[in-house]
Design brief:
homodimer; DNA-binding
DNA sequence: CAGTGGTCTAGACCACACT
DNA sequence: GTGTGGTCTAGACCACTGC
């Protein structure tokens, strides 16, 4: 067990027992007192694992090396690796399965159909609304509006993909979504790609473009339906709709998707837990 | 250090090294195979600490005994107590402060004014909207509607307190709230109590009634303002409002408050983070 | 300085899944 | 049985706070 790790440079992190000035900030100017810049070993291990995830060393769904293997690779104890993995698991980047191993989280093959969708039926079981029917209204490339570009950390003239679609439950339209994606990472995304796909959109992004959405922030408002939305969702103009603006991030907090959804909430609600 | 713990019965939990049949399920019938009913030591410690919190052995804001003291009391190692406290801290029941100690979380003297309020101004700093002005519209006791009673785990005829209030920012009304509380734990709550108070309502509940809200679930919808709401919030009838229905729980998932808020979201939004 | 939480180690054993 | 993650211990040392 624990053979040499092929083509793996010595990643042994700093020795936490060494004097403070040999820590990872060794080269910082002595006057830099604003940043304590001390980072525990397990945090450094966490960063190293994160780097491997970004680099694609292990793909979504893969099993990563065992805690002991990683401990040997990084020259630390198993407990330290464990703490690093613990944090990555609570961040939903890794999934532990006792007896089997630790796996890279994925939007595909998860029991929940849509990991980031918080819309539930008012009555009945959480999944009583069945699978959503999806209709793509359009998918085009354009030079995006400045506000969208800004949120995606792009320059004003950069290319974007815009998608508009409607989700229905049991034949009744429920959600109208506009989605903006940066053009470069999503080169080749087309109406055909989207239409022929079956699973969640974020699973498609993983499989086809290697883009994994890790976290997101949402801004919710109540708005009145305009003519467009009213027609597509089958409500009167002025009907109250829940507007959900979502900015989704990949690794390292890089924004990769802006999405604006309009939800009908007559028989459904947006569910949230506070603590 | 670690003197005898006065008036403390021997709380030593089950020995995890003992054969399985001496675990806490020792008395379960042999046929009961549906429940694995194995609980790690640190979970048992967590329950014991939780029990002390409920019993009021340590009040909100208090410092609890050090990890070593608790380890001695419960006859386990410090690391096991640590893991129990870790979970209680991530549940926001305890707060760790390095060098000082571990404290019972409180809704008072927290930097954020309202811990469960997710409404932020669209632009500007998170706290740019300043403190809210609060106006109590009414506070009365009644036999509550069946639906409210059901959600609060009460019988239909039990007494309730109902509060209606409006929150404004910079003089502009923003939130209309209806709050229902069970009458028994909140005996003595009156308009005077509420009006003379300055801090967050949940801080008042802690200080005056010993009720600490621990977590909550919310259901969000977009609705049209009715005549009442329109008048109190200064909008037209039919104006879209964000409806936020919150059920808040004390320890042990006992529901203690039902709250229905109507938020104006023209210049503010409900903020949420997904992961 | 002493007391507290925070990190790290090394080793033991348990629970679970596969073969 | 073997290999994985999960729990528990005992002891060492570090970092922060306040006397």
């Amino acid at each position: 067990m624990a053979p040499a790790h092929p083509s793996q440079p010595d990643l042994s992190p700093v020795d936490h027992r060494a004097p403070a000035d040999t820590l990872s900030v060794a080269d910082a100017p002595a006057a830099a007192l604003a940043t304590p810049a001390f980072s525990p070993l397990y945090q450094q291990i966490k960063s190293l694992i994160l780097r491997s995830l970004q680099a694609g060393e292990w793909k979504p769904g893969d099993m990563i090396p065992s805690e002991f293997e990683l401990a040997a690779r990084f020259r630390v104890s198993q407990g330290t690796v464990r703490k690093a993995i613990d944090e990555l698991a609570t961040d939903n980047l890794l999934v532990r399965r006792q007896g089997k191993g630790t796996f890279v989280a994925t939007h595909a093959e998860q029991h929940i159909q849509y990991r980031f969708l918080r819309l539930l039926p008012d009555a009945g079981m959480p999944d009583a609304q069945g699978p959503a029917e999806r209709r793509i209204i359009e998918c085009r490339r354009l030079r995006g509006p400045a506000e969208v570009a800004r949120q995606l950390d792009l320059r004003g003239g950069d290319s974007l993909v815009q998608i508009r679609r409607v989700l229905s439950f049991s034949g009744a339209p429920a959600i109208l979504e506009d989605i903006w994606l940066p053009g470069v990472p999503f080169k080749g995304l087309s109406l055909e790609t989207l239409s022929s796909d079956k699973g969640p959109m974020y699973a498609l992004f993983e499989a086809q473009f290697g883009v994994r959405m890790v976290r997101a922030v949402e801004k919710l408002k109540a708005v009145a339906a305009d003519a467009d939305a009213a027609a597509l969702l089958g409500v009167e103009v002025g009907h109250p709709l829940l507007s959900v603006e979502r900015l989704a991030f990949t690794y390292n907090d890089v924004p990769m998707e802006l999405r604006r959804g309009l939800y009908r909430t007559e028989t459904r609600h947006y569910h949230n837990e506070l603590s």
